[in-house]
Amino acid sequence: MKKNDLSKLLSENAYPGRGIVIGRSTDGKYAVTAYFIMGRSVNSRNRVFVEDGEGIRTQAFDPSKMEDPHLIIYSPVRVLGNKTIVTNGDQTDTIYELMDNQQTFEQALRTREFEDDAPNYTPRISGIMHIENGEYNFAMSILKSDDGDADSCERFTFAYSNPRSGAGRFIHTYMGDGNPLPSFEGEPELVSIEGDIDTFTDSVWNSLNEDNKVSLFVRFIDIETGEYETRIINKNV
Questions:
Q1: Predicted structure pTM score
Q2: Domains in the chain, ordered, with CATH?
Q3: Within 13 Å, how many C-alpha atoms sit on residue 54's CB side?
Q4: Which residues is 84 bridged to in the sheet?
Q5: Which residues are CB-contacts of 80 (< 8 A; sequence separation ≥ 6)?
Q6: Cα separation values, 155 from 34, 111, 144, 167, 192, Å
Q7: Cis status of the peptide bond prior to 180, with omega within 30 of 0
Q8: How would you classify the pairing of strands 30-38 and 47-52?
Q9: pLDDT confidence band for 147 (50 / 70 / 90)
């Protein structure tokens, strides 16, 4: 598979929606993840990321303008021991709770489907990073409707063991703008991961469409120690 320039992919797509990147830093030392949200409506754009324990949650920037918290307010990132969960919805909590009860990532997501936002039926995208004893692997999932059919759910899980340095996988909700919005297709895109956490964060944020971008979360986790650094950028400040 061809490795893509992540900045180029983002800059050429005005509306990828919400996106997850998971991979490994150029020097091989860090497990890397990024999660961003975008919005077209006032309600979607009226959000910020805030830290919540070891994870983050979305929050209304101006509570007086919040119309409907459904599908808007959730915890995109939670940490369960040596596992970091990253998703685009409240399935973060489902994964956390069921994995805490000895179920697998895939089993947890069997209890969920795509979002109930007809006619888009936005896919639920999820990722999990596992770091233990200096070893690192991750998995990604997408739950999507079968070509807009509200009664048919397609489930795909992709697992990556000992991921390569300087490379990652990128999955997002939409192929681009449209009405209805076209769901992501295929396996997660192979992308380059370059630079330290600040360089990478700036590159992703600056490549997102200026009108539609809302918030970005980036985390670099030391594979040997489990210690991490986090960056959060909110358009609403």
A1: 0.97
A2: 6-234 (3.60.20.20)
A3: 15
A4: 79, 129
A5: 96, 99, 100
A6: 22, 11, 7, 24, 26
A7: yes
A8: unpaired
A9: very high
